[in-house]
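Hi team,

As requested, here is the filled-out complex form for the adenosine-5'-diphosphate run. I kept the field names the same as last time so the parser does not choke. Let me know if anything looks off before we queue the next batch.

— J.
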Amino acid sequence: MAKMQFKSESKRLLDLMINSIYTHKEIFLREIISNASDAIDKLCFIALTDDKLGMTGSDFKIEIKPDKDARTLTVSDNGIGMDKNDLENNLGTIASSGSFKFKQELSEKEDKQDDIDIIGQFGVGFYSAFMVAKEITVITKKYGSPTAYRWYSAGADGYEIEECEKDSLGTDVIITLKDNTDDENYDEFLEQYRLQSLVRKYSDYIRYPIMMEMKKSRVKEETKDSDKPEYEDYFETETLNSMIPIWQRPKKDVTQEEYDKFYQEKFFAMDKPVKTIVTSVEGVVTYKALLYIPSATPYDYYTKEYKKGLQLYSSGVLITENCEELVPEHFRFVKGIVDTADLSLNISREMLQHDRHLITIAQNLEKKIQRELTAMLSSDRESYEKFFKAFGRQLKYGVVSDYGMHKDELQDLLLFYSSTEKKMTTLAEYVDRMKEEQKYIYFATGENAAAIDALPQTELLRSKGFEMLYCTEDVDEFTLQSLMTYKEKSFRSATNDDLGIENDEQKDEDKKDSTALLTFVKETLGDKVAEVVPSKKLVSHPVCLTAKGGISFEMEKYFNSVQPDSGMKAQRVLELNLGHDAVKTMESLIQTDIDKARKYAEVLYCQALLIAGLPLENPSEYTDLVCSLI
Ligand code: ADP
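And here is what came back:
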């Protein structure tokens, strides 16, 4: 029989598993059982509509069978099974969710210690069995397939597939344990009590019975009354797990640790949730929900790969892995499970979207999430800021999207960095601190806080002690624009030419007639600027650029980055600090050396561009110009 090779990325994972020195090898059992449970979920769902199958909910089970003589451990399920294609695609490649993520992380981390940590944190799937197995055989028959198959692999050198006999649907995974070594005793995975405790520890909530034939001991009936009772062995099949899913258990009976563990296993997460929401509702609709707010952004969060949604169960039957309708776009980071008895079981995907119960549940959950976030913001600021760091951007997109429909719901969840507080602040906190004479909520835009600190346009506001909100993400300014006002105060950019305040220190210069200077600079620069004006904002810097009209520099930059030929251009106003030495020198040069004065004007304009973070039209011309003046 031809030996097939594992795909190369699978091989690396496989090598890692085979040579693993990871101390919790026991998790392999959890992975195999979880696959069995998923496979049953699928057939269970089909059974709802296919009467020919002749199976009902209570027929489904997972069986564990240790065989000490053969040193094998078999995990059997009567789930959907696999055909030849599935075996090749699922067990020959890492294409599937859990393992795939594992691989991604793996390629980023090279050293062994990290690898080990990852095994602990992820569901690493089927391959984890190679931590304890020297050979694995899978015998399986798929729903709808006339043929059964046997898949066999002894590790990294490949696998074989052949047809075989199997009467019933489902899968047997037969693990031949590695030989014991001085350090490792693999026989422990043949001990019934060890297996029993592993199932309780990791797989207790699996909704199908996990059964094992247990060898037990009892007093022989005929010696029961004698002084020396004799014992005999007998076998009894026991269900090892309690089968109560974690979301069905009363909150008070579940530890945060259990919730966290479930989150990490179920959603392949590495982080601990920053908030766990457990809710049970009875009334117009009846449902239980277990929701998690992650503390870290999933690596694919802002890509097409990321799918929002909650798992939806109807009376214990998994309806869909990802019911998108249950969470609004702006809370798409929420993970979790909803279980309701109010849905018809054989509801179609299309019908689901319009289901009245589902819509009500979604509305309730949205409100619940909003309330929980608000509560976290006021009672546990540290956690909230951690959350906001991970998903604040999402909330801001939420404000901007759908024509600002969700802004009332979201505006009080926003945080911005404050120039005076030097930390994140809410809009409400800002407004509470506003000075009596302050008309606007000021904001300033730039790459990062340090860059904004250095912006000359912000000098006046700063010197007057006005607080500014820092917009350091491209979506920030759009967010404020979408909000338009907060508590009736409107937002105003620090680069706007009218800040609604006067700078009295510059009154002296203002009184002087500077028309000649301004006209000279405007004529020198031509169309590059729309206007040249004396600055009210500048204190120590000679020049700055401000934008006139509705388009700000940040918007110009943003549009040009997403659509380079958009031709979007803010109207540039060059502000001159008439009290500054460089400007005064230029003014006197107009009389004595007009060429040099023109060079001054060009250089000062370029500097204003640089400070505004805008590209120079001709960098080498600029450096030549500067050199010619040195
Ligand atoms: P994951 O469970 O994260 O998808 P695995 O490596 O554990 O990754 O499994 C890969 C795939 O193999 C599964 O997604 C499933 O399609 C298939 N599979 C594994 N075990 C079984 C089983 N007992 N019955 C049916 N399919 C299975």
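Two things worth flagging: Residues 31, 35-36, 39, 77, 79-82, 90-91, 96-99, 123, 125-127, 171 surround adenosine-5'-diphosphate (CB under 6 Å). The first helix runs from residue 8 to 18.

Thanks,
J.
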